[in-house]
Design brief:
Elements: H1 9-22, H2 26-33, H3 37-45, H4 61-76, H5 83-96, H6 110-119, H7 140-156
Length: 174
């Protein structure tokens, strides 16, 4: 794989301006600013050329940020998303918002998911472990702490539990 060079954006811009404005040859400008001649030519002849390797991203930066926030929000509520859940949600999004993408039936594959996790280090994929009978015991203190945490979470979202419309019957007869 060829070595990837990185350049100071200001130097690149100066070199491009020198070639365009003073008709300086590519090679002279490249030598003057320490840039490869071929890179300078590509930048001038293809102004919209992207600076990254690989295919164009499917989601915009904002959309990917919103996806990450959605995953984190659900995880904080106790509903972590699995790989399949995330890919299914993205498939539904792409069906609702059509755009060119390399996926079959608008569904991303495992490679996209792995690259997504690399781009988003704040998200971790974890595997659940079996719980032994001894550690499965829950003390009253743990349950009280859970309700305290739930109340703090609802208060942070300005959700009142005093509202009678929030009473639900959730037993097997409801």
């Amino acid at each position: 794989m060829p070595k990837k060079h990185s350049y100071d954006a200001n130097l690149m811009e100066l070199a491009i301006q020198e070639v365009k404005n003073s008709n300086m040859p590519y090679r002279a400008a490249a030598n003057k600013y320490g840039i490869l001649k071929s890179t300078l030519e590509i930048k001038i002849k293809n102004p919209g050329h992207k600076n990254i390797c690989g295919p164009s991203p499917v989601l915009s930066t904002k959309e990917e940020y919103e996806l990450v926030e959605w995953i984190k929000e659900l995880a904080s509520r106790g509903f972590p998303r699995k790989e399949d859940d995330i890919m299914h949600s993205l498939q539904k999004f792409l069906i609702a918002n059509p755009r060119p993408n390399p996926f079959n039936n608008n569904r991303p594959g495992e490679c996209w998911f792995k690259a997504f996790l690399k781009r988003q280090p704040s998200i971790r994929q974890r595997t659940s472990e079996p719980v032994s009978a001894a550690s499965a015991c829950v003390a009253e203190k743990d349950i009280r702490n859970w309700f305290t945490d739930l109340k703090m979470y609802l208060d942070s979202k300005n959700i009142s539990m005093e509202d009678p419309s929030r009473v639900y019957n959730c037993d097997e007869y409801g």
